[in-house]
Every structure is written in C-alpha cells, then in structure tokens.
Amino acid sequence: MQHGLWGGDKDWQPHEPTEWSQIVAILPYTEILFKPGSKFSYSNPGIIFLGRIIETLTGDDYEVYVDKNILKPLEMTRTYFDRAPYHLLKYLSHSYYLNEGKLKPARFDVDTGITVSNGGLNAPLPDMVKYINFLMGDPKRQDTYDQILKRASLNEMFQPQLSIEQGGVPEQSGQNRKDSIGLTFFLEENSGMRFIGHSGSQNGFMSHFYIRPESRTAYLIAFNTTATANEKDQTRDTRRLDREIKDYLFQKIFMIFPVK
Q1: Domain spans, the chain
Q2: pLDDT digit string (tens) for 59-106?
Q3: Which of 72, 88, 176, 191 is least enclosed by beta carbons within 10 angstroms?
Q4: Per-residue confidence band for 150, with pLDDT thresholds at 50, 70 and 90
Q5: 201 with 226: CB under 8 angstroms?
Q6: How many other CB atoms are there within 10 angstroms of residue 100's CB atom?
C-alpha cells in the first residue's frame, strides 16, 4: 500500500465499473497522490490491480484461481464470491445502515463486478477460522499450507514496509501503540504485544481479524449493521463498539495466553 494510487474514499464516476475495460478507460482521469514508496495510504483500487495481475499471470479468472488454490485446499466449502450459490442463499445475512434512528436495508446478495478482488469474497466465520489457521501455521497441516503459500512468503508479508503515522488508521486506540503496513496486512504493536490483522467495511457490513503470532491466538468479529452516532444518541455507533471490544480483548484477554 505504497504505490501512490488514490484510496477508497471517492465514488466511482459515473457508476461502479463492471469490466476491466471500464477501469482502463478511466485511468487517464485518475491521479497519483504521492511518490510510490514514500508513505502509506490504503488503496482499494490497488487491490483490484493485484487481482488483475493474478489473472494475467495465471490465465484464470481471479475467482477461479482463489477458489482452486486457496479455498478448496483449506476446505472453505461455504465461501464464495459475489452472489450466493442457491444452496447457501438462505444463510446469507442481510445488512443495514442505522442513522438518525432510522434503519435502512442495504443491497442484498451483491455482485461487486470488477472490484471482486477488493470486496467480493463472502465467508462464514467457521470458514474464516480455517483461513486464520493457515495464516498462523500448523505443523500438522504445513504440507497443505505450503502448497498454497510457503511459510517464508507469509512471514515476508508480515514484515513492516512503512510506518503508519497517527491518524493514518481510523479510530486508533490502545497502549503504547505503533502501526505499520506489511504486504497487504496491517501490523500493530499494542499493549506490549504484536498483532497482524486486516479489516474492511462494505454495504453495511463491517469485519476484521487480528492474530497474535507469538501465542497463536486470534479473534474474528463481524457486524451486519453500520450504525452512526449523532448528537442525540452517541451510543449507537458500530465503530465505537468495535473499538471497545478490541481494546478489551487486547488489554485483558490476549495476554492470558502464553507465548509458544
């Protein structure tokens, strides 16, 4: 996340593209915000370009490549891209926005189009646990894990590339906190411990995970409602709730588990 491209804070114009040719057409009208490698700025379009690189190098559609080389080896059988398979549709959660006391349904069963590599994956928490186990590593399954991505490559992704200055990550909190970016993963020193994680929000959903490698512990959390605080009611705020849960886990729970 150091290539200088714009982030995810601007709407697509005139509409969200569905084909790669549309991305190509708008590129002349985009901007480079800073010299690549000079500082951190998260970029959703950057992940779209990484997905395109995978397609170009492998000859597979991004979804096909990920499914056969990551999801199937990890037995993530209930995970899919974009619209739900018919047999899983009944398990798909609805999502909502809550603002000024009014609950508004978000779009249901969404096709993310060309942005699929950035935000098209749908996974239930039990499947995400399988992915977290892959990230943490397990000697009993390491042969399978190494066929997906070798441990040395994952460890390289977990190394700091650039520091993230105060305000570079929303809702910073914790004790003696220091943030940096690895290769796609966020790295956080907090409460005397090291964490690896990633987060995201889209269409009313909000989720993230954190791993503490030294104790091989982790947590996942997901919300299906984005509630925004207002002057009359400061209590209904999904991001604040998310932050308070995280702070409690970091300061009270993770330290219970011994370093392995």
Answers
A1: 20-256
A2: 999 999 999 999 999 999 999 999 999 999 999 999 999 998 899 999
A3: 176
A4: very high
A5: yes
A6: 10
| pTM given for the model | 0.89
Residue 123 has pLDDT above 80, yes or no: yes
Q: How far apart are CA 23 and CA 29, in angstroms?
A: 10
User: Which homologous superfamily is 20-256 in?
Assistant: DD-peptidase/beta-lactamase superfamily (3.40.710.10)
| C-alpha R_g of the chain | 19
Model confidence pLDDT, tens digit, residues 188-234: 999 999 999 999 999 999 999 999 999 999 999 999 999 998 767 77
**Helix/strand/coil (H/E/C) assignment for every residue in the chain:** CCCCECCCCCCCCCCCCCCHHHHHHHHHHCCECCCCCCCCCCCHHHHHHHHHHHHHHHCCCHHHHHHHHHHCCCCCCCCEECCCCHHHHHHCCCCEEEECCEEEECCCCCCCHHHHHHHCEECCHHHHHHHHHHHHCCCCCHHHHHHHCCHHHHHHHCCCCEEECCCCCCCCCCCCCEEEECCCCEEEEECCEEEEEEEEEECCEEEEEEEECCCCEEEEEEECEEEECCCCCCCCCHHHHHHHHHHHHHHHHHHHCCCC
Q: Which residue has the higher pLDDT, 174 or 156?
A: 156
Between CA 255 and CA 185 the distance in angstroms is 22
